[in-house]
TrEMBL record:
Residues 1-20 form the signal peptide. This is TonB-dependent receptor plug domain-containing protein. Keywords: Signal. Residues 744-793 form the TonB-dependent receptor plug domain. It comes from Pedobacter heparinus (strain ATCC 13125 / DSM 2366 / CIP 104194 / JCM 7457 / NBRC 12017 / NCIMB 9290 / NRRL B-14731 / HIM 762-3).
């Protein structure tokens, strides 16, 4: 990507311009200046995740590397220092969230997929806090299939058929239930529930036939409202075990929606207009169509046919007084009539011809009434950076221009035509794919053929413009015999950062547009530009000088901040605020509030599950204060936009991969590397209730010399009052607990929700907020706490138990468990040249993963790994970026025999 070649000057179109302007006094120049300032002040971020595989199985790790860039410079971003990556299930619920430290726009991590997860269509979503201001439409959000064979007893295969009953849509589903070996579960009871858009639509019961199948049907009486959902089918297995399967409903009909998009925005009478079409089925995938354009007299004026994924284009010249319809023919032979947008009697047409590999040809057409009326301006910009500006008087009805592509950056270029009042009247997108903008990532020493378990030693050479560069790269190696690539639908650093990150909505097969550079691919990509909406830069905000709403500031470091107030909400300046933590060793730090009562503990470093205590006192050491922490609300999970990527039968789609991964997981289980959850048949067990279920007691919750429950603490003002005289040997002096057996008169150690606090904290805790107090006084119970337990231990667990987030349980003290950094793990790659031979089977599906390959000043980096025991074609995928924002993507293959 090119970021430094922004054209500040003004280009002249042929002989149209022969005069100069005082730029400092020109309103349009002021508008461009506002765009430049807006883009610099509110620079946005894009994120791409390089995944080691396109799909996974339960038991796998999802390894990824994140590349985050600043859209204003196209270089790796220094705006944010933390990235959030989430694994989201089919219920649009977050199953796991990682917060990763980021340096220079680079970070990496992984998700472990335990066997407690079910198969399904999961999503991986990534964003920074700063990106939340632009909205989730611009997050990295990818749907991935995760299969389950290793820890699965029931497999389903579902087929849908559709029909109409009056105005309702009828859906019939045939569901087959089998075991891992493909044997049917015959004569088994099944209960099912049908949900559309999370609304319960129908329920019922059925029994599988000898082939393990059931047939069900339902009516969707509100097809405009309910378009997708799921079937929850619960089958009862031999032994009375019940297993529920969630089966996606991608659509409730075979309906195809066809939309028409005039180039530039509107159809204009008496001018030739290019019109794009997009046909999408109910499942969100493109449908190939053909047809004819007919006027209101029944005269056929043109034919059309979709070129790729239901997209195509045609030309129409609307005449005054005429209306136009499209007779669309679908692949099943049926036809439907759609109205074209109504043509305007006056206006402009902006036409862009992007077929020439060297330049972009622009043509401006206007109706006769607009000739000679005002001056037009044409602006070409990418991510808010202006690369081309021209002005022209309207002396002719047709104006042409030509822009060399080498002067434009790779990615989406937005052309906007402004009228004399500096209002945008036409817009058009064009995609520029400058190969010169790419890093040339070359693998040296790669042989065409290797043996099993042979060591592969490779040199990576990175160059730009034939000069070596320093860059950060990630490398993934898989065996295509196990992991079959899907090249057209593959998400990569080019399709993410240059294409989909700037388009709203679902993009089908995004990498298709990068695989070839032929005329058909270029035309398909141009049709995508004509039919897909774009909203990253809104001119109306620039014109109105309206700043964006900033709710989330860039996250520069881990911090705990807030405000200290009186009970009436008045800020208290010069208050002493202390931060304590015993996670990973005792930690304490103090600060004072400012004039507005605010405090900030900045530049902290801590991991997930770290617990803190925040204590505040006034300047006069009074504790009757409220502590209000700055707690950022979590990002909501929006509905999955990638409807076309949803797979109804995930396990069947991944059958080959699951069969191979089964053997791998079984081998890891034998070695004790992978743990399997043990599923027991339902047994009714009656046990004594644990009086301290959420306790952090190192002996085990409830294992104490005496346990006070919440009910025993109901009728006293302080905890010392509650405990006084009720446990032999426990006494209190000035609210501090002691044991009479303690020869050194050391106070008891108090542990609050797993954290060590001082003994005089006890009466700051409100008894009604306590779930349990465990008293440890015997040597058997205190020994595990070492010297800290010498005077005895009180383990206090609050009702919001064991580290609730941000809740106040007593004046002047709160506990807080903020989201800390996730610990980054290293991919395990065996070494077979060791002295001790390893004869255990090596069946890794990801042969090698390295997220941190850094080239030196000579553009070189080395890495090595060993092949597995499986033959096949091994695929090496390299992605990367340099400090200038140039991108790298390379794919190599070799054979293992």
């Amino acid at each position: 990507m090119k970021f430094k070649f922004i054209l500040p000057g003004i280009f002249i179109l042929g002989t149209c311009l022969s005069f100069a302007y005082k730029l400092a006094e020109d309103p349009f120049n002021d508008l461009l200046k506002r765009l430049q300032d807006y883009n610099k002040q509110y620079a946005q971020e894009k994120v791409h995740l390089h995944l080691d595989k396109p799909y996974y199985a339960i038991g796998d790790d999802i390894w990824f590397k994140a590349y985050v860039i600043n859209t204003q410079t196209s270089a790796p971003s220094n705006i944010s220092k933390a990235l959030y990556v989430e694994l989201i299930n089919e219920k649009d619920s977050i199953k796991s969230q990682l917060k990763l430290p980021m340096d220079g726009g680079i970070t990496w991590g992984d998700f472990k997929l335990p066997d407690t997860l079910t198969e399904g269509n999961y999503r991986i979503r990534a964003y920074t806090q700063w990106m939340r201001n632009a909205g989730p439409e611009f997050f990295f959000d990818k749907t991935i299939k995760i299969g389950n064979s290793w820890a699965n007893r029931v497999f389903t295969n579902t087929q849908y058929t559709y029909s109409k009953e009056n105005t309702a849509e009828k859906v019939s589903a045939s569901i087959k239930f089998t075991d891992k070996k493909g044997l049917p579960y015959a004569n088994s009871d099944v209960s099912y529930e049908i949900q559309l858009n999370f609304r319960n639509l129908a329920k019922g019961k059925a029994t599988t036939d000898n082939q393990g199948e059931i047939s069900i049907s339902y009516l969707n009486t509100q097809p405009a409202l309910y378009k997708s959902g799921k079937i929850l089918a619960t089958i009862t297995l031999p032994g009375k075990q019940k297993i529920t399967k969630s089966i996606p409903i991608k659509a409730t009909s075979n309906a195809v929606d066809v939309q028409f998009f005039p180039e530039g925005g509107n159809l204009i009478e008496s001018l030739p207009n290019k019109v794009a079409l997009k046909a999408v089925n109910a499942a969100g995938l493109g449908e190939e169509v053909s047809g004819a354009i007919v006027d209101n007299d029944g005269t056929e004026v043109n034919h059309f046919e979709s070129l790729h994924l239901g997209m195509g284009s045609f030309v129409v010249n609307p005449q005054p007084g005429k209306t136009y319809t499209a007779k669309v023919k679908f692949k099943d032979g049926s036809e439907q009539i759609f109205n074209l947008p109504k043509a305007l009697p006056s206006g402009y047409v902006l036409t862009v011809n992007n077929s020439n590999p060297e330049k972009i040809a622009v043509k401006i057409l206007m109706t006769a009434d607009l000739v000679g009326t005002n001056e037009l301006k044409l602006v070409a910009q990418n991510s808010g950076n202006v690369y081309f500006v021209t002005r022209t008087p309207t002396q002719k009805q047709i104006i042409t221009a030509s822009i060399p592509k080498k002067e434009l950056p790779s990615g989406i270029v937005q052309f906007t035509l402004f009228n004399g009042a500096n209002n945008p009247v036409c817009e058009r997108l064009a995609f520029v794919n400058n190969i010169e903008d790419r890093i040339n990532a070359t693998l040296q020493n790669l042989k065409p053929t290797y043996a099993k378990r042979e060591k592969v030693e490779l040199n990576l050479l990175g160059k730009f413009s034939d000069k070596p560069l320093q860059g950060s790269f990630s490398v993934a190696v898989t065996n295509t015999a196990s992991v079959k690539p899907d090249p057209e639908n593959e998400t990569n650093i080019l399709s993410s950062l240059l294409l989909t990150s700037d388009l709203i909505g679902y993009i089908e097969d995004p990498n298709y547009y990068f695989l070839n550079s032929d005329e058909k691919t270029a035309q398909a990509l141009d049709n995508l530009m004509l039919t897909q909406g774009w909203r990253r830069i809104l001119w109306k905000n620039i014109i109105a000088n309206t700043p964006p709403i900033i709710r989330y500031q860039p996250e520069k470091s881990l911090a705990i901040s807030g405000v200290i107030t009186s009970y009436g909400g008045k800020p208290i300046p010069n208050s002493k605020v202390s931060l304590f933590s015993s996670s990973g060793g005792f930690f304490a730090i103090d600060t004072l509030t400012d004039a507005q009562g605010r405090f900030n503990f900045d530049k902290l470093i801590f991991t997930d599950s770290t617990k803190f205590i925040v204590q505040a006192r006034t300047a006069k050491n009074k504790k009757d204060v409220d502590i209000k922490l700055d707690i950022l609300p979590g990002q909501i999970v929006t509905k999955n936009k990638n409807t076309g990527d949803i797979e109804v039968n995930v396990n069947e789609a991944l059958q080959g991969y699951l069969q191979k991964s089964n053997s791998y997981f079984d081998e890891l289980t034998k070695r004790g590397v992978l743990e399997r959850s043990i599923m027991l048949n339902e047994v009714n067990i009656v046990e004594k209730k644990n009086p301290a279920p959420n306790s952090s007691n190192l002996n085990g919750s409830g294992r104490a010399d005496f346990v006070f429950t919440a009910k025993m603490l109901e009728n006293c003002a302080t905890l010392s009052q509650c405990l006084q005289g009720r446990v032999a040997g426990l006494i209190f002096e000035m609210g501090v607990p002691y044991l009479t057996r303690s020869g050194g008169r050391a106070p008891m150690q108090i542990i609050l929700d797993g954290m060590n606090v001082e003994a005089d904290f006890l009466d700051n805790i409100v008894p009604s907020d306590v779930e349990s107090v465990e008293v440890l006084k015997s040597i058997g119970n205190t020994a595990i706490y070492g010297s800290r337990g010498g005077g005895g231990v009180l383990i206090i667990t609050t009702k919001r138990g064991g580290g609730f987030t941000g809740s106040t349980f007593t004046p002047g003290i709160i506990t807080y468990s903020p989201r800390g950094y996730h610990l980054i793990r290293e991919f395990y790659s065996p070494k077979y040249d060791a002295a001790t031979p390893d004869n255990r089977p090596d069946l890794r599906s990801t042969v090698y993963w390295n997220p941190h390959v850094v080239t030196d000043v000579n553009g070189k980096a080395t890495f090595n790994y060993f092949n597995t025991d499986e033959a096949g074609t091994y695929r090496v995928v390299i992605e990367g970026i340099d400090m200038m924002g140039h991108l790298a993507r390379a794919v190599y293959t070799y054979e293992v025999k």
